[in-house]
Amino acid sequence: MSSATPTSTFWRPWTPVAAATDPVVMVEGRGTRVRDADGTWYVDGISGMMNASCGHGHPRLLQAAARQLEQLAHFELSAFTHPAAEALAAGLARLLPGDLGETFLVNSGSEATEAAMRIVSQYWRNMGAPRDRVITFQAGYHGSTALAQKLSGLPSNASDWAAPFPIDHVRLPVPPRELRSAGGAEALAGAFATALAAGPPAAAVMVEPLLNVGGGIVLPAGFLTELRRLCDQYGTLLVLDEVFCGFGRTGRMFGFDHDGVTPDLVTMSKGISGGYVPLAAVSTTPEIKGSFRHEPMIGGLRYGHTTSGHAVACAVAAETLEVIADEGLVGNAKVRGSELLSGLRELEDHPSVIDVRGLGLVATIEVDEQETASAVVAEARRGGLIIRSQGTAIMVMPPLITTAADVAETVQLMAQALARVTSSADHRLHAVHQ
Fold first, then answer.
1. C-beta atoms surrounding 332 within 10 Å
2. Which end is more exposed in the chain, N or C (fewer Cβ atoms within 10 Å of the end residue's Cβ)?
3. 258 and 321 fall within a common domain
4. Is 7:25 a contact under the CB 8 Å cutoff?
5. Over the stretch 195-226, which tens digit does the pLDDT of each residue have?
6. Within this chain, do residues 113 and 166 fall inside the same structural domain, yes or no?
7. Which pLDDT value is given to residue 101?
8. Residue 1 counted as domain residue
């Protein structure tokens, strides 16, 4: 146990209460490394919480936060505004394609999902043609608030509350590895076409360009293009969840850039502020925003939070966008990601490995059993590399500032962890047979 002993008063998220826990206490981060209370440094293969895109301790982001704190920490945004929010909204409008220039600010990806669904639902009422059905991936993940949980069909997100509106979950028609085959995009689009045709007109289709919590699943090239066409055919709004993929993670600024599509709404968080301050956003079109003139009660969006568009968070986010551009982090994610995937694909012949896939600085090693995945994550940490698992998928998602040397070290530590886990399992199996 680390010298800074965790207390029983802190309830950790996504962790069994009854399980014996000995969490590592992290106390410092520098660049692509983090240090625990015992002085051990680790390669950060998960970007803090998949959001430290600019690395830890970036001086420009620390200075941006300090400057804003000295000027104005925050002020309410219903009757007022502040320069930090205005600058961020303008910066996002320059980055996003098409008419996605209308941005609503919140605090987290889950809140962005809630806001997007509120906008979608009210938009159709504003247009005098109410719709409430939403279509999503069964293996998708859009947050952990009550509404966001219902949008996911993952067992870990199950809740006892009734769904707030009809939700249809589309299952992958083939295993993740087969999605990369010639017919992968067609099969996946066919599944969504079936869902769109079955039932009343859908208000929206909401998907991630890469399924993160659902197992690090890379969707086939061309799928989003066909999904955009289908939504246009059925008059359905396309909502793309860029909370995880956005701001360079996949080697393009946004995950949907790989197919060159433009959604009707896009949700963003994580990398938007480099993980330094909580922030999220929903961007949409002037047409959708303009429909709210017909909203019956206030003529606007009846949604918001005390710290929505927090001035410090906005200032850091605006600086993050400049850092990403100035340091060429999107291009670096593409190059380093290619190196990472190439190195990890040397593990494909391992008997426990089912698939190795990736896009930008998201790499997934799918293994045969969840126990194996968990063991590899634990063994990697003992070796100095922090990664994570989602079911049978082992995921490596380092900061966008990762260097070629970082990649080489990550690949080596990953291979060593897998080898040690396999060797230990073989030894136990041999002992049982004896």
1. 21
2. C
3. yes
4. no
5. 999 989 999 999 999 999 999 999 999 999 99
6. yes
7. 95
8. no
| Claim to verify: residue 235 and residue 352 sit in the same structural domain | no
- Give the residue-averaged pLDDT of 160-186: 92
Q: Which of 327, 314, 317 is nearest to 273 (CA)?
A: 317
Q: In this model, does residue 4 exceed pLDDT 70?
A: no
H or E segment to which residue 29 belongs: strand 26-30
At 256, list the tokens.
Answer: 């949907």
Going through 37-158 in order, the beta strands assigned E by DSSP cover 41-44, 102-106, 133-137
Phi and psi at residue 49, in whole multiples of 5°?
Answer: -140, 45
Domain shared by 44 and 110, yes or no: no
The helix (H) or strand (E) run that includes residue 284 is strand 280-284
Domain limits at 237? 60-326
Residue 11 belongs to some domain of the structure: no
Q: Is residue 71 part of a domain?
A: yes
If one counts the domains in the chain, the total is 2
318-337: pLDDT as tens digits: 999 999 999 999 999 999 99
Return the C-alpha torsion angle 202, 204, 210, 213, nearest 10. Answer: -90
User: Taking the CB of residue 11, how many other CB atoms lie within 10 A of it?
Assistant: 7
Find all residues with CB under 8 Å of 137, minimum gap 6, and list them: 153, 169, 170, 172, 207, 208, 211, 214
Q: How many residues does the chain have?
A: 434
The predicted-structure confidence for 22-41, as pLDDT tens digits, reads as follows 789 999 999 999 999 999 99
d(CA 115, CA 264): 14
| Same domain membership, residue 221 and residue 113 | yes
* pLDDT higher than 80, residue 114: yes
Determine the Cα–Cα distance for residues 188 and 167; give it in Å rounded to an integer: 18
Across 397-417, average pLDDT: 98
Q: Which residues contact 384 (CB under 8 A, 6 or more apart)?
A: 40, 41, 42, 43, 413
Radius of gyration (Cα) for the chain, nearest Å? 22
Close Cβ partners of 275 (under 8 Å, ≥ 6 residues apart) = 47, 48, 49, 51, 52, 53
The type of residue at 8 is S
The closest alpha carbon to 289, from 404, 127, 135, 426, belongs to 127
Does residue 85 share a domain with residue 49? Answer: no
**Angstrom distance (rounded) from CA 286 to CA 103:** 10
Helices and strands (DSSP H and E) totals, the chain: 12, 17
Would you say residue 20 lies in a domain? no
Q: Give the residue with greater pLDDT, 114 vs 6.
A: 114
- Provide the β-strand partners of residue 104: 282
Task: Answer with the one of 295, 326, 357 that is the final residue of a domain.
Answer: 326
